[in-house]
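#onboarding

Welcome to the new folks! Below is a worked example of what a typical request in this channel looks like: someone posts a single protein sequence, and someone else replies with the predicted structure as tokens. Don't worry about understanding the tokens yet, we'll cover that in week two.

Example request:
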Amino acid sequence: MPVPRLDSRRLSVLKPQLDALVAGFPHAQRLLRDPVEVPHRFHRPRDIEVVALLSACIAYGRVDLFKPRLEELVRRLGSSPARTLAGLDARGAARVVEGINYRFNLPGDFAVLLLGMGRVLNEQGSIEAVFADALEQTGELHSALGTLTSRLRSVEVAEVEKHAGPTRGLAHLLPSPLGAGAAKRLNLYLRWMVRGPDPVDFGIWKRVPASVLMVPLDTHLHRLATHLGFTRRTDLSWRTAEEVTAGLRRLDPADPVKYDFALCHLGMSGACPQKVQAKSCLACSLRSACRTGSRLLKRGG
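Example response:
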């Protein structure tokens, strides 16, 4: 894993500021602008597990665009989505996903995901079991995620397409093989399942330690991580996610991704805008730890 470019002095400045940010962050307010709000409507672990995976997989683009599709899919799965999925066949899945499209993904893609989750529940009892077994066997997060997506896609695609239509965006919804990308949505799902319980994350998976998690790297977190000195890499790759996580792990070895929600939402909310602005930097609680903001303020904006 790459070694982050952070010395002890930088770490001593960053840690108290980031810990204070997390402690005082308005989690409940920002939850409404996050896909994790949908699985929070459920209480049984298996229902949370499957709704959370569906939420993470569809969480690309703007929240106000994907969330209505997500909510409609979840509504059609009924009061116990896990029970519905466990009894689903290709014809039933086609009825659930009928008419639901989102950007790269067609109804057939969603049908594969639903059937894959149902098969996993029937064969191993939980999605956790598939991932945890793979992680214990390989000791490597990337490989374990690859095993998970492969298992979820191990359904009769031809049968699905006969009832639900083509699966044009399946590689985007459930990438297999995983590739060199940051796997943001899959790592987001792991964070929800493993961390916590707290106001955001559920902590219902007990076989996976939070210490092994990787940040769900997206454009918002990458921008904040660059400003704070966790990376100089410019790509949204697995290697960049490793580098950012390695830096955060030096702040909290047991729970490095606890900072993700607050940092990501600083970017999503516009508090840390894409174009650096003196006004935003002056209002930011991280300004003395931020290399970009500090330089701007020293120059007088």
